[in-house]
Amino acid sequence: MTKKNIRGVFFTCLMLAMSHLSGWTQSGNNPFEILPRAEKKTQIDSNNISTSFSNPFDLIKEASGQTSATSITPKPTASKTEKKGQNSPPSVEEKYSRFLFVIMLLLLAALTLLFTIFRTIVGNVYRAFFNENLLNQLHREQPKYFVGLPYLILYIFFFFSVGLFVFLLAKHNGLEIKNSNTSSLLFFTGCIGAYYLFKHLVLRIIAYIFPLSKEVGAYSFTIMVFNIITGLLLIPFSIFLAYASSGLVSLLIHIAIGLVIASYAFRILRGFLIGSRFVMFHKFHFLLYICAVEIAPLLILLKLYLSKGGLQS
C-alpha cells in the first residue's frame, strides 16, 4: 500500500470520528463531562425511626413541610393512683405493728440487762416471794427510809411491764385512751406508777402517825417484792398477747389475770401475817385500809374490764 492510500484511510477514519463527536455534542451527552451524583430521595418511615443509630432528638422535615419530632415510645410510668399509694402514709395496723416490734425489742433488751447486772438481786427477790424469813432479812438490809437502787430499778421495770400488759389488754378490747400508741402506753404506765407511789405514801403516813413503823415498812417492802415478781411474770403474757392469734389471746388473758389475782391474794395474806398482832385490837382500821387501799382499786379495774366486754370476748 502506498503512502497516499494510507493517508486516505487515516483521513477517512478521522472524518468519521469527527462526525460521531459532532453528533454527541448535538445530543447534549458529553462522555468526558463529570456529572454530580443524583441525590437520593430518602423516605423516612415513622415506624422505623427508632433505630440504634438515630438520634431521638433530631427534627425531621416531612413531605408536607412541617417539622415534627421523632415519635419515641415512652417508658411505662406508674399512674397517679399508684404513686399516691406508694407515697401514702402507713396505715393504723402498720403503725401498731412497728410500735409493738420496737417496744418488744426494748423490753427484751431491758430484761437481758436486768438479769445480767442484777442476777443476785432477782434470785433473792424470787426466793423472798415464797420465804417470809428471807424477805424480812432483805428488808433489814435496806436503808432506813428508802430501798436500794437495784430494787428501785426493778420496781420501775414492774411499772412498765404492767402498763404494757394493760395497754395490750385495752387494745384487745378496743379501748382507746390516747390518740397515739406511745401516749397510751405512757398513760397506763404512769397510772400504775402513780397508784403504787400513792399507796407507799399512805403507808409512810400511817407509819408516821401510828407506832407501826417496823410492820408498815415490812409490808411496804413486801408490796415491792411481790410487784417485781408480778412484773417479771407478765412479760411472756405480754409477748403472746402482742403476736398470738385471736383465739388464743382470750385464754392468755384469763390465765394472766388469774395469776395476778392469786399473787395479790397471797400478798394480802402475807400482809395479814405481818400485822396479825394489831388486827385483834384495831379491826375497824384494818378493814378500812383493806377496803379503801387494797380491794377498791382492784374492783374498779375489774368493773372497767367487764364493762368493755373483756370476759365475754
Q: Main β-sheet: number of strands, strand sense, barrel status? A: 2 strands, antiparallel
C-alpha termini separation: 141 Å
By helix and strand content, what is the structural category? mainly alpha
Relative helix content = over 70%
Task: Compute the number of helices.
Answer: 11
Strands side by side in the biggest sheet: 1-2
Give me the Rg, rounded: 49 Å
Contiguous low-pLDDT stretches (5 residues minimum) are 38-53, 62-71
Please state the overall shape, judged from the principal axes of the Cα atoms.
Answer: rod-shaped
Extended strand count: 2
Residues in β-strands, percent: under 5%
Q: Averaged pLDDT, please?
A: 76
| Order of helical and strand elements | HEEHHHHHHHHHH
Explain what this protein looks like in three dimensions.
- With 313 residues, the protein is mainly alpha-helical.
- It has a domain at 94-307.
- It is 71% helix and 2% strand.
- It has eleven helices and two strands, in the order H-E-E-H-H-H-H-H-H-H-H-H-H.
- It has helices spanning 3-27, 80-87, 92-117, 119-130, 132-140, 149-172, 181-209, 213-243, 246-274, 276-279, 283-307, and strands spanning 59-61, 67-69.
- A two-stranded antiparallel sheet has the order 1-2.
- A hairpin with a 5-residue loop joins strand 1 (59-61) and strand 2.
- Helix 4 packs across helix 5 and helix 6 packs across helix 7 (181-209).
- The protein is rod-shaped, with a radius of gyration of 49 Å.
- The relative contact order is 0.06.
- The model is unreliable at 38-53 and 62-71 (pLDDT under 50).
